[in-house]
Amino acid sequence: MRGDIAQVESSPVTIVGPERPLRIALFGAGRAARFHLDALDLIGGVEVAGVCSRSGTTAGALVTDRPGALATSDAGDLIDPDRIDAAFVAVSYDQSAPLAARLLDAGIAVLLEKPAAPTAAAADALADVAAQTGTLAVVGMNRRYYSLVAAALGAVRQRGPIRGVVVEGHEPVDQLRRSGISGDLLRRYFILDSIHYVDLLRLAGGDVAEVTSVVGSVRVPEGDHISASVRFTNGAVGSYVAHWNSAAPQVLRLYGEEATAHVRLTKPETGIVELAGDRRIALETDWADQVAKPGVYLQDTAFLQAVADGRPPALPASSLRDHVATLRLAEEVLARGR
């Protein structure tokens, strides 16, 4: 902490491991895959070996400036441990788990975009595959790696345990519809995207002992106005609040011992820590969150270094088993609200 600025500082990373660069494949060629490619371009010691997309055309566009990288529509062309060392899976939510299972069976380390599967039960089955094969698998929960989130957690915990957590996970429904999201994707959006904010509740508060919730449904039958209260096993309490289409930003609030932190998770991302005695500390965004999708660079470097080291990454990484707990909490919030 410097003066009145709290910051988590990182430096450009070169993956240290084998003599040759780590060979990476991306499955999917949408926005999430592009965010990973942007991050990979900033990481030393890695090379993109190939990209797979449904048609192969979008994959081709992503490897144009990457000599030797394969563009394909056949995942089997890249599911080969002699060709790649690790994979980023950023395909549609219903295809993610089956594809990841094939990669894990082949002994290829995987980072899956959230959610790893449509349900907690399906994600648990995938975690069994990872355990049986002994292959590294993590889930891309990039908000865990926001430098502002890390700085806020560190500043509050410096003064004692976190006693309360509030996460506001509002979603802009009308904006989503205008962007083309509708039908089953919109109906499942709580699991497909709001899972980020449920996950932050667990990251800050810990294991969950009890949940109560109230769910209102206006535009989405599953619920688009949600208020949930959580008691954590360590005695802390938390709240998850979502009022879709309210134009409110997504926010994380932490309450500790004579310290409170507030992080705005929506652009422009900002943060502040308030201490006893009316002292305020500004949270400063790390360079990596300014040049790449926030959280993605630090998340991807942690995953890739773990691949090189042959060991699971440390927190805040989300393993498949950890992700199952987040999915179960999300399902419980909806179920108990009905």
SSE blueprint:
Elements: E1 5-7, E2 22-27, H1 31-40, E3 46-52, H2 57-62, E4 70-72, E5 86-89, H3 93-105, E6 109-113, H4 120-133, E7 137-140, H5 147-157, E8 164-168, H6 173-178, H7 183-187, H8 189-192, H9 195-205, E9 208-216, E10 225-232, E11 237-243, E12 251-255, E13 259-264, E14 270-275, E15 279-284, H10 288-291, H11 296-309, E16 318-319, H12 320-336
Parallel strand pairs: 1-15, 2-3, 2-5, 3-4, 5-6, 6-7, 8-11
Antiparallel strand pairs: 7-16, 8-12, 9-10, 10-11, 12-13, 13-14, 14-15
Helix pairs in contact: 1-11, 3-4, 4-12, 9-12
Write structural notes for this entry.
With 338 residues, this protein is of the alpha/beta class. The chain has two domains: 5-142, NAD(P)-binding Rossmann-like Domain (Rossmann fold); 144-291 and 315-336, 2-Layer Sandwich (Dihydrodipicolinate Reductase, domain 2), CATH 3.30.360.10. It has helices spanning 31-40, 57-62, 93-105, 120-133, 147-157, 173-178, 183-187, 189-192, 195-205, 288-291, 296-309, 320-336, and strands at 5-7, 22-27, 46-52, 70-72, 86-89, 109-113, 137-140, 164-168, 208-216, 225-232, 237-243, 251-255, 259-264, 270-275, 279-284, 318-319. Strands 1-15-14-13-12-8-11-10-9 form a nine-stranded mixed sheet, covered by helices on one side. Strands 4-3-2-5-6-7-16 form a seven-stranded mixed sheet, with helices on both faces. Helix 4 packs antiparallel against helix 12 and helix 9 (195-205) packs across helix 12. It is globular, with a radius of gyration of 20 Å.
